[in-house]
Design goal:
It is built from two helices and no strands. It is mainly α and about 90 residues long. The two termini are about 25 Å apart. The relative contact order is 0.07. Its main location: mitochondrion.
């Protein structure tokens, strides 16, 4: 039993589509949370005093910080994926 035994095929399709849309929105929210996190971290690390324009040092620092954050996140995600796959076997 999948909990959908008493509903029509179109209702099942609608429920499936709704679940897909919810998953997409959750992914968007996770992405936005990541952007917010690395914005906070990198801003605090790289920006001494905000001005009307970023100087070269600040721009380079922000770029490097974001790249490191993304690389680290990908490395951790890949490692967890490997661990889960090994555990599933």
């Amino acid at each position: 039993m999948d909990g959908y035994d008493n509903i029509s095929a179109s209702e099942k399709a609608e429920a499936t589509e709704l679940q897909r849309m919810i998953a997409i929105e959750q992914q968007k929210a996770q992405f936005q949370a990541q952007v917010h996190t690395f914005t906070d971290v990198c801003w605090d690390k790289c920006v001494d005093s905000p001005g009307s324009k970023l100087d070269y040092r600040t721009e380079t620092c922000l770029q490097s910080c974001v790249e490191r954050f993304i690389d680290t996140t990908l490395t951790i995600t890949n490692r967890f994926t490997q661990m889960v796959q090994k555990g599933a076997h």
